[in-house]
Amino acid sequence: MTRFPGVDYLLIDSQLTEQELLVRETARRFTDEQILPVIRDCYRDGRFPRELIPEMGRLGFFGANLMGTEAEGYGCAGMSNVEYGLVMQELERGDSGIRSFASVQGALVMYPILTYGSHEQKDRWLPALQSGAAVGCFGLTEPGAGSNPGAMTTHARRDGTDWILNGEKMWITNGSIADVAVVWAKTDDSVRGFLVERGAHGVTPGFTPGFTASEIHGKLSMRASVTASLAFNDCRVPASSMLPGAVGLKAALACLTQARFGIGWGVLGAAMDCYETARAYSVMRKQFSGQPIASHQLVQEKLAEMITEISKAQLLALHVGRLKDRGKADFAHVSMLKRNNVAIALDCARTARDLLGANGIMDEYPVMRHLCNLETVKTYEGTDHVHALVIGQRVTGIAAYE
Questions:
Q1: Integer Cα distance of 92 and 255 in angstroms
Q2: Cα separation of 247 and 77, whole Å?
């Protein structure tokens, strides 16, 4: 297998520490040796490669940037945010579905349990999630409440010492294979987070009574990822399932900020793979006078544009990562990172498809797979337009979406 050479036009590697380079090398080797040999068939078959989960856990990819002695006590790797970003970059170079799995597991399941959970919830779930022995999902989006999560209709009411959930969640990564779902629901006084388990109350196998998950089929994007709908029909859970610190929609949105940070780094991997595929192809492919198409001015212009945008996106990711490591990055910074980097990755994928001509649609090459995946990544966890409004509010002080 050809070793991925990396993309570093501006010598950005010189700004990385030895530890950061070592972490990236570990993730790069995993992608080259274990993701790439199987991902084409997984995408064809619409199958997530669950066999990769244990090794991803062993390498510390789940909850990698959850910091503090408590997190490390649960087996988390304690990576810096830049190190974590480099891992996401390499996983998404393999496929957006693989990075999405890791993002959900760490940022959307482990993070809220660590941040908002009780000691009992942390002890039970964090070690299993970190190792990959358990899988989690995050239930926020609904069929009628995507970009406006405040419009959710899923609700929870007290019944003695229990809570009863009713509602539906949609487009949930890992939903039908998850052992535990972090579910957000409206109560009489606020939005609260709950841990709803598969097989709780002695129901094994299967789900907590009243909780069902159905995998969504027919996707033309993110085919190597599990996407499901979750339904709650008088789903009874004990009071101990509530995340005690998760109060208000702000708690759920804080989780999304963690995940969006990983996306901003991850899509760089897809962009790099598309660029390198197009660059290598244009040097090899001969046309007209027997010269490689890389010798043509229009081709060189496209490659120049791709590498320029990738380099700018790398600098943005690195800077936001350094800010986050210093505790100075907030949700509006992450919105710029996610919005910009997904857009350039999608542009790079489209340009690469063009440079490969008819071969660009063949799954012998990764370009069309990345292109289709990135169309979804542009939409989920905050659309391009929503992030534009977040940035707009920051620079004007006016919230246009209220």
A1: 20
A2: 28
143 CB-near residues (< 8 Å, 6+ apart): 168, 170, 229
| β-strand pairing of 211-215 with 155-159 | unpaired
CA–CA separation, 85 and 101 (whole Å): 14
152, 232 contact by CB (below 8 A):
no
- What is the token pair recorded at 69? 């002695």
Amino acid at 95: D
Lowest mean pLDDT among 192-201, 210-219, 231-240: 192-201
The interaxial angle of helices 367-377 and 331-355, nearest 10 deg, is 150
Please work out, in degrees rounded to the nearest 5, the angle formed at the alpha carbon of residue 327 by the alpha carbons of 128 and 195: 30
The neighbour count for residue 207, using CB atoms within 10 Å, is 21
State the chain's mean pLDDT as an integer. 95
Going by pLDDT thresholds of 50, 70 and 90, the confidence category of residue 197 is very high
The answer to whether residues 105 and 39 touch, using CB atoms and an 8 Å cutoff, is: no
Q: Give the containing element (helix H, strand E) for 278.
A: helix 249-284
Collapsed DSSP state (helix, strand, coil) of residue 81: helix
Could you give all domains of the chain from N- to C-terminal order, each with its CATH number?
12-135 (1.10.540.10), 137-247 (2.40.110.10), 250-396 (1.20.140.10)
In this predicted structure, the answer to whether residue 289 has a pLDDT above a threshold of 90 is no
Pull the structure tokens for residue 254: 């804080």
Q: Which two tokens stand for residue 272?
A: 């790099």
**Is the confidence at residue 42, as pLDDT, over 60?**
yes
Measured CA to CA, the distance from residue 369 to residue 374 in angstroms comes to 9
Is the omega angle on the peptide bond into residue 205 within 30 degrees of 0, that is, cis?
yes
Instruction: Judge contact between 6 and 70, C-beta under 8 A.
Output: no
Do residues 335 and 260 make contact, with C-beta atoms less than 8 angstroms apart? yes
Helices (H) and strands (E) in the chain, counts: 13, 10
CA angle centred on 154, ends 196 and 246, rounded to 5°: 60
CA distances in angstroms from 187 to 147, 181, 194, listed in the order given: 20, 18, 11
Q: Cβ distance 268 to 342 under 8 Å?
A: no
Reply yes or no on whether the pLDDT at 368 is more than 60: yes
Q: What's the Cα-to-Cα distance from 176 to each of 135, 259, 274, rounded to whole Å?
A: 10, 20, 31
DSSP letter, residue 165: E
Position 201 pLDDT exceeds 90: no
Residues annotated as catalytic are: 381
